[in-house]
Structure formats: structure tokens, C-alpha cells
């Protein structure tokens, strides 16, 4: 089994745990469509990573609402994130630009769509973001220094913050773990939120990308107030009331249709 397949299974198990609280391990082979031996290996990996607690044939999430490793987040809502990334990248004008991209699974799909743009200079603290951008060898990539966060695979701390403050960006694109009209855009990690906040402060145009599962969630580390963001790109499953509120306060919220895109409300900066 590939690591990606295992990550997808683990993400599904964690989603089910979030919904049900606990699961009987004996039911997982039929739910996942794999053998009992494969389930036992997956459960062992999850236990080793501190994602679950196991007892008497049952498993439960170790901590509800905890930040997941980025390798697992990539496989959650992957189609929505892919479409969000493609749409967000289309909002970046075709001219020489300097922009900031954060780390994170959704921003990773933005990077994938931008990787063929020879007119871009991209500054990032995301190690995965940088690797994705370099695949086509045309984008000029600048990586901040800093301390590596193993959960998000990005660089944080004073070195990264100082590096970002030395730039002025035409655009900044960051992700979010929570979106609330009242609480704004939030993250699990305070150090990661500080990096995102600096990227946005240093940018003329500020874009947040996040799939609909982030709507209505609030985490302790604030990135930005909702009114300070120019655009939010999400998917059509997003909470309609929150979308309406964001639009009323001036956030240009663009939805990409999931699962099939027939029409998209697109906008472009000029």
C-alpha cells in the first residue's frame, strides 16, 4: 500500500472519530475495504503518531480538534482543495509579480497551479510549498529561514518573521483552520498564525483559501479580521449564512462548485 493510500484511510478514520467519538476496530476492514492486517497496521501508525487512544477493541481520537500532520490534511477534501487551488491561482494577474505563499495543504494546491509561471517570484515559509513550486523550475522561489514545524512542515519563528518583513508583496495567499465572521481567520498554531499575519500585512492584495470544513470553526491563534481580507476562495459546500455575512462586510468570497464546476463566480485584480 502506498503512503498516500494509508494517509487517505487515516484521514477517513479521523473524520469518523470526529463524528462518532469512538469506533470498533473490528468494523474498520469493511468500512475501509481493506484487510484486518492493514487496519491493524494503520491503527498502530495512528497510535505511534499520538492521533488515537486504543482500548478493548475500540479507538478514540487522542484530542478532539487537534491539528493534524499536513500529510494527512492533503487527503481530506482533496478535490475541493484542488479546485480551490486552481481558481485562486487564476486570480493572480499574468505579469511580473512578487507574492507570498504560506504552507498548508490547500495552499499547496495553489502552488501546484502556479508552478508553470515564469513571471513570479514567490516567498514562502512552507517547505512543501517550495518543493511544489520548484517542480517546473520556472518560478523564482525564496524560502525564509526559521524553525521547522513538523506538523505543518513549514518554517516559523523570528528568523522567518524577519525575512518576511523585508519584502513587499503584490499578493499574499494563506490558508486558515477556522473561519468565523466574528472571530476572523484563525489557526491552531500561534507561531504559524504570526507568519500568515505578516505575509498579509506586507501584501497589497490579501487572499485566504480554505475548504468549507473550516467554516464556523474558531481556533485560539488569530490570523486576521475578516474585514482586512480582500478575497476568500472556498467551495460551494460552505455555510451559506457565513458566506453572506462575509460578502456583506466586503470580503469578495468566491465559490468553486463541488463536485462538478458548471459555473464559477470569478473575479480578477487589475
Task: Tell me what the structure shows.
The chain is an alpha/beta fold. It contains ten helices and 15 strands. α8 (158-165) runs parallel beside α9 (190-201). The radius of gyration is 19 Å and the shape is globular. The model is unreliable at 260-270 (pLDDT under 50).
Low-confidence stretches: 260-270
- How do the SSEs run, as a string of H and E? HEHHEEHHEHEHEEEHEEEHEEEHE
Fraction in beta strands: 15-25%
Q: Nearest-angstrom radius of gyration?
A: 19 Å
End-to-end span in angstroms? 47 Å
Based on DSSP secondary structure assignment, what is the total number of beta strands?
Answer: 15
What value does the average pLDDT take? 87
Structural class: alpha/beta
Topology:
Elements (H helix, E strand, L loop, with lengths): L2 H18 L1 E3 L3 H5 L3 H13 L3 E4 L2 E4 L8 H4 L4 H13 L6 E5 L3 H10 L5 E5 L2 H7 L6 E4 L3 E3 L4 E3 L1 H8 L3 E7 L2 E3 L3 E4 L2 H12 L1 E7 L11 E4 L6 E5 L4 H9 L3 E5 L14
Parallel strand pairs: 4-5, 4-9, 5-6, 9-12, 12-14, 14-15
Antiparallel strand pairs: 1-3, 2-3, 7-8, 10-11, 11-13
Helix pairs in contact: 5-6, 6-7, 8-9
Q: What attributes characterize this protein structure?
A:
alpha/beta; 3-stranded antiparallel sheet; 10 helices; 24% strand
In summary, what is this structure?
The chain has helices at residues 3-20, 28-32, 36-48, 70-73, 78-90, 105-114, 127-133, 158-165, 190-201, 240-248; strands at residues 22-24, 52-55, 58-61, 97-101, 120-124, 140-143, 147-149, 154-156, 169-175, 178-180, 184-187, 203-209, 221-224, 231-235, 252-256.
Amino acid at each position: 500500500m502506498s503512503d498516500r493510500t494509508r494517509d487517505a484511510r487515516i484521514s477517513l478514520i479521523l473524520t469518523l472519530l470526529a463524528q462518532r467519538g469512538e469506533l470498533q476496530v473490528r468494523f474498520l476492514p469493511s468500512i475501509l475495504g481493506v484487510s484486518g492486517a492493514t487496519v491493524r497496521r494503520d491503527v498502530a501508525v495512528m497510535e505511534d503518531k499520538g492521533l488515537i487512544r486504543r482500548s478493548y477493541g475500540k479507538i478514540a481520537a487522542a484530542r478532539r480538534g487537534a491539528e493534524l500532520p499536513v500529510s494527512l490534511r492533503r487527503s481530506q477534501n482533496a478535490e475541493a482543495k484542488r479546485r480551490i487551488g486552481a481558481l485562486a491561482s487564476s486570480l493572480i494577474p499574468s505579469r511580473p509579480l512578487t507574492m507570498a505563499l504560506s504552507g498548508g495543504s490547500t495552499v499547496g494546491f495553489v502552488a501546484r497551479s502556479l508552478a508553470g509561471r515564469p513571471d513570479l517570484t514567490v516567498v514562502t515559509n512552507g517547505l512543501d510549498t517550495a518543493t511544489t513550486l520548484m517542480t517546473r523550475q520556472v518560478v523564482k522561489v525564496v524560502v525564509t529561514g526559521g524553525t521547522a514545524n513538523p506538523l505543518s512542515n513549514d518554517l516559523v519563528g523570528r528568523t522567518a518573521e524577519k525575512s518576511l518583513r523585508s519584502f513587499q508583496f503584490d499578493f499574499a495567499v494563506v490558508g486558515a483552520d477556522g473561519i468565523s465572521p466574528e472571530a476572523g481567520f484563525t489557526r491552531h498554531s500561534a507561531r504559524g498564525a504570526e507568519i500568515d499575519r505578516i505575509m498579509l500585512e506586507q501584501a497589497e492584495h490579501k487572499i485566504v483559501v480554505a475548504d468549507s470544513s473550516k467554516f464556523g470553526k474558531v481556533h485560539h491563534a488569530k490570523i486576521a479580521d475578516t474585514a482586512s481580507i480582500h478575497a476568500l476562495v472556498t467551495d460551494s459546500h460552505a455555510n451559506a449564512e457565513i458566506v453572506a455575512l462575509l460578502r456583506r462586510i466586503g470580503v469578495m468570497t468566491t465559490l468553486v462548485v463541488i463536485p462538478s464546476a458548471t459555473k464559477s463566480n470569478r473575479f480578477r485584480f487589475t
